[in-house]
Amino acid sequence: MADYHEMWASLGLDLKTHDAVLDIVGKAYQDIFLSQKNRPKGMSYFDFVVSEIHGLRIKEIMDAKAQGRKVIGTFCVFVPEELVLAVDAVCIGLCAGAELGFEEAEKFLPRNTCSLIKAAFGFKLAKVCPYIETTDLVVGENTCDGKKKAYESYKDIIGNLYVMDLPQMKSAEGRALLKAEYNKFAQKLEQLSGKKITVENLKKGIEIANNKRKAIHRMAALRSADPTPISGLDALLANQVFFYDDPVRFTTSVNAICDELETRNKEGIGVAPKGSPRILLSGCPMAVPNWKLPYIIETSNVVIVGEEMCTGERGTQNLVNTKGTSVDELIDNIVDRYFQIDCAVFTPNPNRLEHIKEMKKKYKADGVIHYGLQFCQPYQMESKIVEKELEKAGIPVLLIETDYSQEDVGQLKTRVEAFIERIKK
Ligand code: BJ8
Questions:
Q1: Strand order in the sheet with 367-373
Q2: How far is the CA of 325 from the centre of ligand 1 (A)?
Q3: What distance in Å separates the CA atoms of residue 77 and residue 256, rounded to the nearest whole number?
Q4: Can you list the alpha helix ranges (DSSP code H) found in 92-170?
Q5: What does the pLDDT average to over 195-209?
Q6: 143 in contact with ligand 1, CB cutoff 6 A
Q7: 0.90 exceeded by pTM
Q8: Ligand 1: residue whose CA is nearest its atom 1
């Protein structure tokens, strides 16, 4: 990687801490990803992306800003990237997956707050995230109580926070609220960028976002083969990079990997021997560099074949209909897609149960591991409903509750291995 210290200093990062963070992430990547056997060659693209995670991509974003483009940071898959792309802005996911700055974060948050929220505060307070420093607007959303209330303090820390209200029920009123919020957000983006949203630029935004999703859908479908041609860790990485890479380049790179995966499937080449137990992961999102649980699972002689999470199929399923002759019609199409997201903040949330069962079947999983972050009420509460439903359908399920610390690795490994013994054919 080139020397980016000058750029990082200009963004106000704490260079010493930031260097240490890059060092830790680099070593973890080496141990977790580069040590995998028989990886698709195309994953070298993602190796490069991660090696430049705070380098080249940040430089690209800074260059875009210099050309007058705006940068929008997000924490939730409910924020419609299509609208951001329509005003030629850059959309960046800001969720973080490491225990960093938690002590500082706990000056604003109760200790029993989930790690995802604490990391959002921690990364900002510890001055280690160049992405957040490039943003012109950060979008918060009223989803779980934790996030909703945390944004009240967060706005004082970051200063450019915009909060979007979201429905909690899949009713006609809920849909109307989502549409009103997307219209408001569209106006905010127009005001910020000085660009009008038109049928043409919105269609283009929809097309770019759809293509990105189609590429990920293609990769997901190829994982139903046995042996599976790509590890769950690598597929998760693609789903994580989805949130901050250039969308067009990302699509091209994922499609190139899919071409390779198709060949591997034809030739029967996989990352684990044919007949290896197959796991479906379900639950809370996993942001970079949260690779703890997938690493534990895949170093236990099993392969992960799908992720029912927002860094996975919950976040990417369904496309936006491109047909429409007015901006209003296209926004309706966008609402139609996003309103189907089955996040556990909705009540009731039966579609998520159906989706888990459908994914289990589609990817031929032998069992489901449900990942709930400690102190995450929506997913922890729903995990019991998921467990009951899957048991009723005869699907083995393991509920895991954890956080970003490494203290429980041994204990988790024991539980995962015992579960695998249970599901072995
Ligand atoms: S659409 S999953 S990205 S809200 S883990 S902060 S729920 S207490 S992240 Fe999410 Fe949007 Fe839903 Fe997806 Fe709260 Fe739970 Fe923490 Fe969470």
A1: 303-308, 278-283, 367-373, 397-402
A2: 34
A3: 25
A4: 102-105, 115-125, 130-134, 145-158
A5: 98
A6: yes
A7: yes
A8: 343
